[in-house]
Amino acid sequence: MMAKPVYILNGPNLNLLGQRQPEIYGHETLADVESMCRRAAAGLGLDIRFHQSNAEHQIIDWIHEARQGADGIIINPAALTHTSVAILDALNACDCPVLEVHISNVHRREAFRHHSYVSLRADGVIAGCGTQGYVLALERLATLLGRQHSDSRRG
């Protein structure tokens, strides 16, 4: 049976990564993050579909697509984290593993950022690790999927 891809979904304003608030989000662009994810995924034997949208309905459509066509979802819902019951409902309709990623440590920021609807469904949450959080999520997903991978950091 052929493995399905992993969907990496990015929410609003992440298209401005590297330009918007670099003191919080860093200087890497979303294209840099995608390249990093593609390299990491290849090393883990994973195929990815990398998407970003500022539109909630588009993210929901990708989650619906992933229900049948993905081995897992990694999602950085950005500001929709704190507001979107609709994204939570879409994720609840998926049986595959879901990992939530945030570049910044949302718990060190404004109080409204401390609540995540997505966390109610996520199998894991990675926050405050910068863009490396995406690679950590791919590594965790590979583990959840039972994929073997070589990692020079581990003995």
Automatic annotation (TrEMBL):
Binding-site list for substrate: 76, 82, 89, 103-104, 113
Pathway participation: Metabolic intermediate biosynthesis; chorismate biosynthesis; chorismate from D-erythrose 4-phosphate and phosphoenolpyruvate: step 3/7
SUPFAM superfamilies in alphabetical order: Type II 3-dehydroquinate dehydratase
Amino-acid biosynthesis found in the keyword field: yes
Site (Transition state stabilizer): 20
GO MF assignments: 3-dehydroquinate dehydratase activity
InterPro entries found in the cross-reference section: DHquinase_II, DHquinase_II_CS, DHquinase_II_sf
Cited Gene3D superfamilies: Dehydroquinase, class II (3.40.50.9100)
EC number in record: 4.2.1.10
Biological process according to GO: amino acid biosynthetic process; aromatic amino acid family biosynthetic process; chorismate biosynthetic process; quinate catabolic process
Pfam family, one: DHquinase_II
Assigned keywords, A-Z: Amino-acid biosynthesis, Aromatic amino acid biosynthesis, Lyase
Catalytic machinery residues: 25 (proton acceptor), 102 (proton donor)
Protein's UniProt keywords contain Lyase: yes
Signal peptide feature range: none
Catalytic reaction(s) noted: 3-dehydroquinate = 3-dehydroshikimate + H2O
Function: Catalyzes a trans-dehydration via an enolate intermediate.
Subunit-structure text: Homododecamer.
Family: Belongs to the type-II 3-dehydroquinase family.
Protein name: 3-dehydroquinate dehydratase
Lineage, broadest ranks: Bacteria, Pseudomonadati, Pseudomonadota, Alphaproteobacteria, Hyphomicrobiales
